[in-house]
Design goal:
Number of helices of chain A: 15
Number of helices of chain B: 12
Helix content of chain A: over 70%
Shape of chain B: globular
Strand content of chain A: under 5%
Oligomer: heterodimer
Chain lengths: 350, 307
């Protein structure tokens, strides 16, 4: 039911909201996909990567470069974005997964920054800091204009399909194996699970969907820029995931929505400060997101989603207790999608 | 052109150019060493990878800028700034440890990364609000504004001063770590936190001091670099933190000597790499970092971490 209601809202949204808000919703959808793909590593494998932005950017640049430099049809360019994301993830993951925890994080940071340097400095190929345009002419007509309903539906439909695939995946034997490995890699190894191969598969799938998100971003924004690959974008995706809750499949999507919405709504909040700085754009984005990051790290280790889940469970057990007392049957379980939570307590206290 | 072999080989065939480049690399190495040793010290003792360490460097530079403009008329204003700026940053660092970091030592490293990332964002915005986003710079102190001729090329006196100060700090740090009671306690806490605590050391206080010291080293590097005429802006934090990571990874996270060695390697590779591959010198040092992580994750002079 809540899923249907959500779908209904998403379909109705472009007819109700302004073009500007529709663009914002499209961006939220793209970052939701990026964050959920990231969480395959973070939440399900317990690995922090700072190379996710590079995979996102590689997807975006793949699409933009194919459209700008060749006469290839749009569909081929769109399909190439996730393929290149997965290929890059295969290389990055194959090497990175030899390393544990902090070294893994630092290695993905280094490789991601190599990719960023190439996008930034190989000006003759990528356009460098001037960014690379995805012209409206190279995109099929109905989805070529920003803020249009058809572009919005195109983005949302692809993101929804991708999320569905990811959802089925993490609720399959594969997803449970990843979680078992996260809880105890040694034990998983003992029962015969090839831990590295499973993690590499997760890394490649994560890269596939990050590349897809990058391709969609390029279509949605009509340009790609080296900043897409910069490690701070990976850190923002980390913030989205932890803010929403990494133990829930939908948590990172919720976090992405909150972060993108906050980022947008703090712009122009303090016009007097903007004036004081001689027309310089001062958005307070850093202060806002920084404060959110500190709050999550210190007070909300389970994220907003984790807190909501707890509240729902608490309410459910209260209702259940009263229900049993009055003979109304067993306690209603939490909604199915909340059941994907792996653990109640934050990990890493090992 | 992507590759400029000619400028590289023509420099290598001229000893004057080689010495000049080596010296330039050395002054860069010394700044990197100061930053990286703070980062490495904090990791060694607190086991926190402090992504906000570049922000300490940036605060050092901005504080120096502010003090220099504040005391513009006073003789020796640069020296006042150079001494006070690191102290201010150390105080801020100590406060950050007490108010924020202290709560997350037992959390997963996800949350530790997230907290220091939040600090980066907040500090950059505070600097932008206080000083504006445009580039600032301070001029070198009068005493050191000249140049020395090094094999026929003018080399700034200030850079010699910078090298000497950093070496003195390195020596002082080494002496403190090796020869004093405080240093022994720090090393003990780095190798076994619980045992050190059980022996009656006030570990929370020690952590605050170590974080403040690390932050102060970053602040000193920022102030020294500001005096060299580096452009001071709210984006200098994320640029320098990456170099600092490369240095500590190459040298070994948690290793003091490793920071020095890593800084020398990375600075010289960058200085000479710019001649050979002007576009990709930075990409190249990231490749070095990746290769070191694969072959020897604990770095050249570090020790493997026991989990």
């Amino acid at each position: 039911m809540p899923l249907l209601a959500g779908a209904g809202l998403l379909v109705a949204a472009p007819f109700v909201l302004s073009d500007f808000k529709v663009i914002l919703l499209g961006e939220i959808a793209i970052f939701a996909l990026l964050a959920v793909s990231y969480n395959l590593l973070l939440g399900y494998c317990g690995l922090v990567s700072f190379g996710h932005a590079a995979l996102f950017g590689i997807g975006g640049y793949t699409l933009a470069l194919i459209l700008a430099k060749t006469g290839t049809p749009f569909v081929v360019a769109l399909v190439s974005a996730p393929i290149m994301g997965a290929a890059a993830a295969l290389v990055m993951g194959f090497l990175a997964l030899r390393l544990a925890q902090i070294y893994f994080a630092l290695f993905t940071l280094a490789v991601g920054q190599v990719a960023w340097s190439v996008a930034n400095k190989w000006v003759s190929f990528t356009g460098g800091d001037d960014s690379l345009a995805v012209t409206a002419a190279s995109i099929p007509d109905p989805i070529s204009s920003p803020g249009s309903e058809s572009l919005y539906f195109f983005i949302v439909a692809i993101v929804a399909a991708a999320l569905l695939v990811l959802y089925l995946m993490v609720n399959s034997a594969f997803g449970y194996t990843l979680q078992a490995m996260r809880e105890s890699p040694t034990r998983a190894e003992f029962v015969g699970i090839p831990v590295r191969r499973y993690r590499l598969l997760a890394f490649v799938i994560s890269g596939l969907f990050a590349g897809l998100a990058g391709g969609l971003f390029a279509v949605h924004n009509h340009f790609v820029h080296p900043e897409m690959l910069f490690w701070l974008v990976s850190a923002q995706v980390l913030l989205m995931s932890l803010l929403g809750g990494v133990h829930l499949f939908w948590g990172p999507a919720l976090g992405a929505g909150l972060v993108v919405y906050l980022r947008d709504s703090v712009q122009g909040v303090f016009p007097e400060l903007t004036e004081k700085h001689l027309g310089q754009i001062l958005t307070l984005e850093g202060l806002t997101l920084g404060a959110v990051a500190l709050a999550v790290a210190i007070f909300l280790p389970l994220g907003v989603g984790g807190m909501l889940q707890r509240a729902v469970r608490l309410a459910a057990s209260r209702l259940g207790a009263r229900g049993r007392a009055s003979g109304e049957g067993p306690a209603p379980g939490p909604p199915a999608f909340l059941g994907t939570a792996a653990a109640e307590e934050p990990r890493g206290r090992r | 052109m992507l590759l400029s072999v000619s400028s590289f080989t023509s420099c290598l065939s001229d000893p004057g150019c080689v010495v000049f480049q080596l010296l330039g690399g050395l002054s860069m190495a010394m700044v990197l060493f100061l930053i990286a040793s703070g980062l490495s010290l904090i990791f060694g003792v607190l086991r926190i990878v402090n992504f906000a360490h570049g922000s300490m460097y940036m605060m050092g530079a901005f504080t120096a800028y502010w003090l220099v403009s504040r005391f513009a008329g006073t003789p020796g204003h640069f020296w006042i700034a150079l001494v006070l700026a690191p102290l201010v940053v150390a105080l801020i660092g100590g406060a950050v440890e007490v108010v924020l970091l202290r709560h997350i030592y037992r959390r997963s490293h996800f949350h530790q990364f997230l907290l220091t990332f939040g600090l980066i964002l907040i500090i950059a915005d505070v600097m932008r609000m206080s000083f504006g986003g445009e580039f600032k710079s301070i001029s070198r102190p009068d005493l050191l504004s000249g140049s020395v001729s090094v094999m026929g090329r003018p080399f700034p006196e200030y850079n010699f001063f910078l090298i000497v100060v950093a070496l003195a700090v390195a020596l002082g740090m080494w002496l403190v770590l090796q020869r004093t009671r405080l240093g022994r306690t720090i090393r003990a806490a780095a190798s076994d936190r619980e045992m050190t605590s059980a022996l009656g050391v006030n570990v929370p206080l020690l952590f605050t001091m170590v974080f403040a010291l690390g932050a102060g080293l970053g602040g000193l590097a920022g102030a020294l670099d500001a005096g060299r005429g580096v452009a001071i802006s709210p984006t200098m934090d994320v640029q320098i933190i990456l170099l600092a990571f490369i240095v500590v990874v190459v040298g070994g996270l948690g290793s003091f000597g490793g920071s020095l060695l890593g800084a020398l390697i990375i600075a010289e590779v960058t200085t000479f790499g710019i001649l050979l591959l002007p576009q990709f010198a930075l990409a190249f040092v990231f490749v070095i970092m990746a290769v070191v992580l694969l072959l020897r994750p604990w770095g050249l002079l570090g020790k493997p971490l026991e989990e």
